[in-house]
Amino acid sequence: MKPLFQSFTYSDPQYNKVVSVNHVSLESDAELIYQWMHQKHLAPFWKLDIPFDEFQAYLKKSIDATHKDIYIASLDSEPVCYFIIYQVEEDQIKNYYDHDASDIGAHFAIGKREYLKEEYIIPLTRGLISFGFHMYETERCVVEPDVRNRIVIPALQQCGFDILSEIQLPHKKAKLMMIEKKMFISNMSQLQSIQNGEKEYVRSSSNG
Questions:
Q1: For residue range 87-129, what is the model confidence (pLDDT) as tens digits?
Q2: What is the domain range of residue 113?
Q3: 116 within a domain of the structure (yes/no)
Q4: pTM for the whole thing?
Q5: CA distances from residue 80 to 38, 120, 152 in whole angstroms, order as listed
């Protein structure tokens, strides 16, 4: 996986928020993400409220993995979200639906609870979806939030995800949800038309 890019920016035409995405750096990002994982709204779901040396080992293993990529996203230049994009073909989730070889999956953790408000979580989620479809050769993205997550699931639906089924994973009961690239682009085009936003709402620069 590991798409090469220097920067990625999404400008939301409805909420006037800017989402930027960068690769996670073990040296500069570990402490911040570690603090997030101890927040009450994240710890029960991610279960990464562990000693720091263990968390560093987890993060390094994730950075080095070939089947997934990890990122940190900022909202108006403030880091707010840790997220993962992975190959469905290499994950157990492929056993729970009729998957395509090019499907990607995603996990994301919003670090501070105040950013779970609609005016933040909606543009952030749209930015993450835009990033996934812009950087990866895929037509579909799946997520599997815990069924107890009453904030993230409605936000995902508002951004275009459909619930496929309720599934029992080894570590949780989850809602299996999917969004298709063509539908997302169509929805965003309509939104831009209504909001009179810029047509080019995604900007990225490549490492070459």
A1: 999 999 999 999 999 999 999 999 999 999 999 999 999 999 9
A2: 8-192
A3: yes
A4: 0.90
A5: 14, 10, 15
